[in-house]
Design brief:
Layout (H helix, E strand, L loop, with lengths): L16 H4 L15 H4 L12 H19 L27 H15 L1 H15 L7 H16 L22 E4 L5 E4 L17 E3 L19 E3 L24
Amino acid sequence: MKMMEPTTAREYGTDSLSFDEVGVPGFWCAQDIAEYFKTHHSQSDTFDKVWKDDINQGAQVLATWAYSTAQLAEMLPRRPLPPIAPAGAKLEKPKTDPIVETDKRIMEQVKGDAEKLKADLTYLTTQIGPRLTGSPQLDRASHWTQEQFKALGLENAHLESWSIANSWTRGPATGRIVSPAIHELTLAGAGWSLATNGTVKGEVIGVDAEKIEDLEKYKGKLGGKIVIVTRPREMEAPGDPMLTPFGQSAVR
C-alpha cells in the first residue's frame, strides 16, 4: 500500500492541521484522488458514491499506521512547549488577546442564533436559489437581505446601484450522437457561454492541442463542426463498485 512512501505534495484542508497547531504530531495519507472531483461540493457528493474497497483499504492503512506508531521505541517528536513554572512561583495572568476574544463573541452569537441562521440559509438556497452576478435571483436576494437588516434594527440599510455588461442565466441543454450509434449526452451550459439559437447539427471532432502552434493543423478544417477541445477523462472503475446506498452490509 506504499505506506512508507513519503511525499512533499501540498495537501489542502487536511484534518491534521488542528493537531499540528497545538504541538501534537499529525499526519495525512496522500490518497488517490480517483473520482473525487466529479462529485465533490455538489448535490451528488453522497455516501452511496463511496467505493467499498477504498474505504476498507483506508481503514486498514490508518489502523496499520496507528499500530506501527504505537510500537515505536520513542514517541514522535513534539513541538517545544512553554516551560513549566517552578513550584510556588506566582503565575502571571495571561494577557487577553483581543482577536481571540472577538472570535469567541462571534462564535457565541452564531451558536445563540443558530436556528435563525439555519432558517436564513435555507430560505436563500431553497426559495431564491443560485445568485449569479447580474441575475434576477441576486437582485431578489439583495432586497431580501436589505429587509432582514432593517428588521434587525440596522440604520441606513440600503442598496447601491452598479452595472455589468451582461447577465447570464443557464438554460436547458441537450445533445445526442446520432451516428454510428445513438448516444444520449448529459450536458450543461458553461457559465457565461452563448446559446446556440436552436438546434445545431454537425460532425463532432476532437481537437488535440496543447499550445497555439498545435492549432495550425486544423486551420480551415473546423467550419460547421462541433468541436471538443478537451480530452476525455480517464475513468477509473472501482474494483467492487457500490450500486446501492452505503450500509453495514456493504462493508467486509
